[in-house]
Amino acid sequence: MSDKTPAQRRRFLKAAATTTVAAGGLAAPAISRAQAVAFRFQSTWPAKDIFHEYANDFARKVNDMAGGRLKIEVLPSGSVVPAFQLLDAVNKGTLDGGHGVVAYHYGKNNALALWGSGPAYGMDPNMVLAWHYYGGGKALLEEVYKALSIDVVSYLYGPMPVQPLGWFKKPIAKPEDLKGLKFRTVGLAVDVFKELGAAVNPLPGGEIVPALDRGLIDAAEFNNASSDRLLGFPDVVKNCMLQSFHQSGEQFEILFNKGKYDALPGELKSVIDYAVQAASADMSWKAIQRNSQDYIELKKAKINFYKTPDSVLRAQLAAWDKVITAKAGENPLFKKVLDSQRTFAERAGQWQNDYTVDFKMAWNHYFRKPAAKKA
C-alpha cells in the first residue's frame, strides 16, 4: 500500500500526466461537441429525387463517423440558389458545400462536361472514376477550376448507370426522328443532340416534367428508372428509349468551400475522404436495387420501353466526334482532358473488354424463354 497521502497522490498523478503529454504520449484532445462544425450544403436535386437521397446518404456517413464534431445538413435544389448556380455559391461561401454533377458547370468551361457527357472512349462510369483518381483526371479538374478562379474542393463519386436516350411521345426508330424535336439534356449532350437536329433546352431536373406537361419541350432525358419515376415522367410521356451514349459515364460531385474545408482538422478531412468512398460503393449497390425495382413498377404502369436502335447509337458517336473535334480546336484544356481520357481508355478498355465475360449470355441462359417452335 502506498504511504503517500491523498493530496500527494493527486500531485503525483497530475505531474505524470503533464510529463506524458509533453513527451507526446497522448494525442491532442478531440474537438468537443461544443466546438462542432456545421456545414450547410445544397443539392441540385428535388427533395423527392433519389439523387437527393444519395446526397443525404453521404452526409449521414460523415455525421456518423465524425461523432458530433462535424455535421452536414443537405438542403434540396433551389433552397438557397438555383441548381446551375451551385458551383458559384460554394466558391463564394454562400453555401459550405453541395452535391451535383460536373456537367452542370458546362457553361463556364466546356471541358467540364467531359466528366460525364459522351461515350468516354468506351469507358463505363466506374472506369471514368478510375481515370479521375488514378489516371490524371483529378489534377485536370483542379486545373480547369483554377483557370476559372474557382476555389473549391471537389470529390467525384458514385458511378451512375447508363442513362436512357430519353422519354418520347413516339418511339425513335431512326436518327432522323430526332430532327426538330424540342429536347432536354445537359452538358456536351446539348451539342450532340443539336448535331442530330434537335432543338435543345438544358433544364435542371426539377423543371423537366412540368415543361413536358405544358408542351414547352417534346422529349427529355434525365437519368434512371428511379429518378424518372419519382419526378413524374410516366405521368406525361409513355415511351422510353433505353441505352444511349450521350451520358454513359457520369458520376456525382461533392463540393466543399475550400476555406471551410481547409479549416477542418486532419482527422475530419480523413472522415470526409473515406465517407466519399463508402458513399460511392453504397450508392452503386442501392442504385441496382432501386432502379431494377422501379423499372418493374414502370412496366406495371404500362410504360413502353424500347431499345435505342443501333443506327441512332452510331449516329450519336458520329455526332460526338464532330463536337469534340470542334471543341478541342477552340479550347486547349478541352483537348488536354480528351487526350488524357483517350490514353487511359485505350489501355483500361482493352483490359476490361478482354477479361470481362458476357454476363448477358448467362442471364439469357437462366431467364430468357426460348422462342416458341413453329408448328
Describe the protein.
It is globular, with a radius of gyration of 25 Å. It has a five-stranded mixed β-sheet, sandwiched between helices. A three-stranded mixed β-sheet has the order 5-9-11, with no helix packed on it. The chain has a three-stranded parallel β-sheet with strand order 7-6-8, covered by helices on one side. The protein is α/β, with parallel strands linked by helices. Helices cover 48% and strands 13% of the residues. The protein contains 14 helices and eleven strands. It has a domain at 33-161 and 250-289: Bacterial extracellular solute-binding protein, family 7 (D-Maltodextrin-Binding Protein, domain 2).
Summarize the entry for a quick read.
This protein is an alpha/beta fold. The protein has helices at residues 6-22, 50-66, 86-92, 125-134, 137-147, 189-195, 208-213, 225-231, 233-236, 258-262, 266-300, 310-330, 332-355, 359-367; strands at 37-43, 70-75, 97-100, 152-157, 166-168, 182-184, 199-200, 219-220, 239-242, 252-257, 304-307.
